[in-house]
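Two proteins, back to back. First:
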Amino acid sequence: MAKQQVYDGTLNKYIEIDVSIPEEDTELTKTNDSIVKRGMRNDLLKDSDWVALADCQLTDSQKTEANAYRQSLRDLPSHTDFPYVDFPNKPSFL
């Protein structure tokens, strides 16, 4: 048990109470981290969707590099350490 100071409006003063601090739920934390990481990944994919358009002005080598980057983003959730993995390096032209 931990002690915490709280204001008691009835007594008009601060009093000390015992509070229990719950242990961190690691499975819930991992789930929340996964949701955040997927959202960030989805934003990165959305920001680079234009490279898949037929009138995209990239060179063939840039298209290949962009497609590899996008595939790495799509594969991210399948990594065993997900969500605790780094995003792939984004090509400079994106």
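And the second protein:
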Amino acid sequence: MRPLGASSKGTVLDLGDPANYPSGSATYVIEGRLFVANAGGHLFALSQKCPHLGCRVPFCDSSGRFECPCHGSKFDLGGEWIQGPAPRGMDRYDL
């Protein structure tokens, strides 16, 4: 895997059956240091790093969003920017 737009080749990581990721969920995959999120039936592999300053962005079950604890950036389940100082949405990996 590699972030979209990166020049390096990256590595291949088997994330298993898509059915393992129910709609509305964000599952942390330790081996890839990423989240697999299912937003309305669309799967996304998202970097755990905030595009602002690189803090680890956890998924908040109560709000259903990714919320950066460092500076308050918020991202929807698909990794799109909602608010805060981050200049863009979360980095996505090819699936």
